[in-house]
Design brief:
single chain, Lipocalin, 8 strands, 20% helix, 33% strand
């Protein structure tokens, strides 16, 4: 009986060792979604009333506030995040806008109850690090609450 128990334990131990070896060799890298801000090839023309439906202030998941405004009598929509200066937007689709300087991409899903959801992509410029080196500029995402 002791020999059978010992044989079973050795078999289980050897299977575990083989499984660990195979797992290390069979790793798979899954790339994340690439965050890009690109101007649309053919911007969508929206009139003042269509753009006006998106006017307002939206809280972002990173604690910042997105303000969408129109100035004057033109149809253009402008975005500003926490007083960083307004950026003129072009419509990429009926619910997606890109800043002309490619610093923002805003996608808003307007819900029937008046709430909004969506995503804001923001370009963060290169910054000087504490050791004197420069970080790479990157695009970060925040959700609209």
């Amino acid at each position: 009986m002791k020999k059978i128990t010992l044989a079973v334990m050795l078999g289980v131990a050897s299977l575990a060792a083989v499984a660990q070896t195979n797992q290390a060799e069979e790793s798979v890298q899954v790339p994340g979604r690439a965050l890009k801000i690109e101007l649309p090839a053919m911007p969508l023309h929206m009139d003042r009333d269509q753009n006006g439906a998106f006017r307002g202030s939206y809280s972002l998941s990173n604690g910042q506030v997105l303000h969408l405004r129109q100035y004057g009598s033109g149809p253009a929509l402008y975005a500003e995040i926490d007083e960083q200066g307004p950026r003129k937007l072009v419509a990429a689709s009926p619910s997606s806008f890109v800043a002309q300087d490619r610093s923002l991409k805003i996608t808003l899903d307007m819900k029937p109850d008046g709430d909004a959801g969506g995503e804001v992509l923001m370009k963060v410029p290169a910054q000087r690090m504490a050791d004197g080196s420069m970080s790479q500029s990157r695009v970060v995402s925040a959700t609209v609450r």
